[in-house]
Amino acid sequence: xxxxxxxxxxVEVKGQIGIIKFNRPKSLNSFGGNxxxxxxxxxxxxxxxxxxxxTVLTGExxxxxxxxxxxxxxxxxxxxxxxxxxxxxILHLERFTPMMELMKALIDHQKVFxxxxxxxxxxxxxxxxxxxxxxxxxxxxAYFQVPFSSLALVPxxxxxxxxxxxxGIHRANDFLMFxxxxxxxxxxxxxxxxxxxxxxxxxxxxxxxLEAQLETNDGISMIEAKRLQNLPLRSERILAVYNxxxxxxxxxxxxxxxARFKAKKxxxxxxxxSRL
Length: 276
Hints:
Number of strands: 9
CATH class: Alpha Beta
Helix content: 40-55%
CATH topology: 2-enoyl-CoA Hydratase, Chain A, domain 1
Oligomer: single chain
Low-confidence stretches: none
Distance between the termini: 55 Å
Strand content: 5-15%
Largest sheet: 6 strands, mixed
């Protein structure tokens, strides 16, 4: 059987370390093209690799991920006036299938899941993976920001529940409700980020750090520690993803996000014309 051909991520194995690298740098690694399906395939591939202990998710270029690819996919611009709210909700739920499958695969992933924030994360790039990663490493120039409320959306992919477990409910509310921009240093002080590394040579620093852990610690023991810690959290995380997706589809079906996107687009176009 022919192997899967990756187009929007790079997959590499270095000894006991599996690496998944978002590879849409010109689009700031936004979730367009084949990126989500590619990532899902890579997560499953590395889950079955008998040699690896760590699975690292990172990005190519200056951003980790800018989240949704607004330019590449414009469902909010489509005319759905002939559809009922119920039909609209079903339409949006169908669009979220790759995201839900990816989140489930990561929640059930057996290897130690290391998120390596090589740069800023925005929207889904700041919220999807952070609450379920086992270890988060970040470059010193990384920042996190989510515009969910400003766009009449809701915290995606279970982030409202999963992030609150790491940073506390009040801090999670400040971040998710108000769209507060947080530096990697602030996230480290809030307990979300484990360690910071210099921007220069970030990816190599991550590999060297993980290799040092493998020299000191038994790989199976680390995997077992992850399993035991995450075992009672699985149902909560899966339910959080489902609840968030249902709420997001409801908001999109209401039409409020489309109105916000339209107003924001007009504002940006006006600013662009004023510069001419």
